[in-house]
Automatic annotation (TrEMBL):
Keywords linked to the UniProt accession: Allosteric enzyme, Carbohydrate metabolism, Hydrolase
Keyword Nuclease annotated: no
GO biological process: carbohydrate metabolic process; glucosamine catabolic process; N-acetylglucosamine catabolic process; N-acetylneuraminate catabolic process
HAMAP family membership: GlcN6P_deamin
GO cellular component terms given for this protein: cytoplasm
Record protein name field: Glucosamine-6-phosphate deaminase
Source organism (scientific name): Actinospica acidithermotolerans
Active site: 68, 137, 139, 144
Enzyme Commission number(s) of this protein: 3.5.99.6
Amino acid sequence: MMEVVIVPDAGAGGELIAEAIAALVARKPEALLGVATGSTPLPIYRALAARVSAGTLDVDRLRVCQLDEYVGLPAGHPESYRSVIHREVLEPLGLGLDSFLGPDGTSEDIPAACAEYDAALASAGGVDLQILGIGTDGHIGFNEPCSSLASRTRIKTLTPQTREDNARFFDSLDEVPHHVITQGIGTILEARHLVLLATGAGKAEAVAATVEGPLAALVPASALQLHPHATIVVDEAAAAQLKHSDYFRATYAAKPAWQGL
């Protein structure tokens, strides 16, 4: 089974993952960190920023890359994921755009932009740690149910449910783009360490299917079962449907502290 860590709440999850990132940066100052958007990873970014502000974490050489991006939003749009990452990750950590890699959602040739981004990640040496969230239907990135487990970075059409979920960031549902560029599942699996954070009861079913269900394209996040170093960090509410929760608690409690995540 993949590593599952059950924490009391979202804040504790953010602190734990920030600790793992800090340990990575200590080992490899120029590490490439894959970041996700949305509300779930915000405790991670706040915990990292607090360490930088306190002078206990030096990220001057850290590089950051993007998991996905809307297609068609103009450059500088406040809800483009590039803008969100600049606002929530780069600025709080004191990093400039020269530290950032992302796909071009405004390109006139989106398939070429997708291939170029995959190539850029490889040229950068690959992602050292990729932060992931999970949708209520088990999607990761914008790899919706029935996505190929070998897929590469590509354009995807958002489902009506995902557009409705994301409408809270826009003035209306009509403003939510219909298409996105997303790292494919095959691309995601190339990261050296995958760390998925899930919080809240609404994610409990998807977490259980990911961790304890069969490997299936219907649950894209179940592909993490194939990865040699995948960590699932969940709060008590998101862990509620795990049949082996006691096992996961005991296993993590017995893990030597020096191993980290």
